[in-house]
Amino acid sequence: MTAVQTAPYDVEAPSRSRGRIAATLLPVLGVVVALAVWWLSVIVFDIKEIILPAPDKVLEAYNRQSDYMLEQSWITLVRILTGFAMSVVAGVLIGLAIAASRTVERMFNPLLVAVNAIPKIAIGPLLVAWLGFGHKPVLVMIFLVCFFPIVLSTATGLTTTPTDMAELVRSMDATRWQAFGKVRFPAALPQIFVGLKVGMPLAAIGAVVGEFLPGSDAGLGYVIQQTSGIGDTALAVAAIVLLAIMTIVLFYALVAAEHLLLPWVREITSQR
Fold first, then answer.
1. What is the CATH architecture of 50-268?
2. Residues in the chain with pLDDT < 50?
């Protein structure tokens, strides 16, 4: 009598499936709850439309000028991506310099902290005076708002290489560049992505602040400023909602890129 052979059962498969379902449904549920609370608050407290319009009024305002709103959203999106890319390049390079030299760190850390501490809205008019109207002040504002977390995360990641990995590289007589390319930089990538994920929403904030500056004539920030000033609160809220959706999509695109480029991180870190 032969024994019946059965295929091995993956005990983690059901939990992974439930996790994927939860990851899809829970954010949708959160949005539904937020919309319901918003709608009920307007009805229960009888809030006037000029103060806080109901979601249906916001949707009506968007539909009336959908082409215009999409055009302004595209302008803001291009600015966010351009300014964020500038901050990533500069932030990673500055972080590399700080991690590579204690002298550079001691020279420029106080300056970086000071620049980060300056209220960005306070230097907005100066940016217009220095750079003129148009895209440049907005891009610089985005850069100033979001580059510091990238610098900090890059420098932190490169200076906190696990001791056992550093000892292994030294025991193999690897050159400094080999140690950097094979160990230090890959080990720093999870920390760098933390800075990128912090910086992305800040880039959206910087874009709106830049589009509030004098002389601005395009972008969702400009729409918010102009429509709220004339009492068209529904269209202003529609612009805010579009900005929020854009930021969420960009943030989770970074999360997806992290999972794609760093699959090994989930293998060596604890998961909730």
1. Orthogonal Bundle (1.10)
2. 1, 9, 11
